[in-house]
Amino acid sequence: MKKLLQIVLIGLLILSCNNKNRTETKTFEETEMELKDYSEEERKKEFEYLKANVFNGLKNLNDGFDSESIYYFSESDFEIVLDRVEKNGIAIFGIEPWLNGDFYDVLSFEDYKIDANDPKWYKKAFTEFKNREKNLMYSASYQVPKRLFAE
């Protein structure tokens, strides 16, 4: 009787787990469609939010070699950026480091087959870059949830 009860409970647990809705990792195309859902005004608010809440107090190393809306950070400052991004639930689509003023590499959330707002991917990518090369400048592409800058 005890064994039968255990088997029934295990069966119910398995059925319960199988019935839960699971979040699918978004493809690049799906993510790109989400980006298109942001108006130009929302993009401006998003950038202002990033400057005030993520980039605040950090040194932007972009001295004009790229668009002024793309911020580049030292390794130590970029680590702070990633902590702030995680705290605020902001998505990162890609990380692009540069070495001595030249493009070095790029990694995206798709390389890790995980959602763009999951800190596991961008922290792992950052660690991989740090282990490969020193003195990189880091930039990233972000998506701030609308609820954070809608106020």
- Count of DSSP helices? 6
Portion in helices: 40-55%
Main β-sheet description: 4 strands, antiparallel
Unreliable sequence segments: 1-26, 28-35
Taken from the alpha-carbon principal axes, the silhouette is: globular
Give the SSE order as H and E letters. Answer: HHHHEEEHEH
First-residue to last-residue Cα separation: 59 Å
How large is the share of residues in beta strands?
5-15%
Structural class: alpha+beta
Radius of gyration: 20 Å
Number of strands: 4
**Overall average residue pLDDT:** 82
Give an account of the 3D structure:
It contains 6 helices and 4 strands, in the order ααααβββαβα. By secondary structure, it is α+β, with helices and mostly antiparallel strands. Strands 1, 2, 3 and 4 form a 4-stranded antiparallel β-sheet that branches. A hairpin with a 2-residue loop joins β1 and β2 (102-103).
Which key terms come to mind for this protein?
single chain, 151 residues, alpha+beta, four-stranded antiparallel sheet, 6 helices, 48% helix, globular, disordered N terminus
Describe what is shown at a glance.
This protein is α+β, with helices and mostly antiparallel strands and 151 residues long.
Task: Set out the fold topology.
Elements: H1 2-19, H2 28-36, H3 40-53, H4 75-88, E1 91-99, E2 102-103, E3 107-108, H5 119-132, E4 136-143, H6 146-149
Antiparallel strand pairs: 1-2, 1-3, 1-4
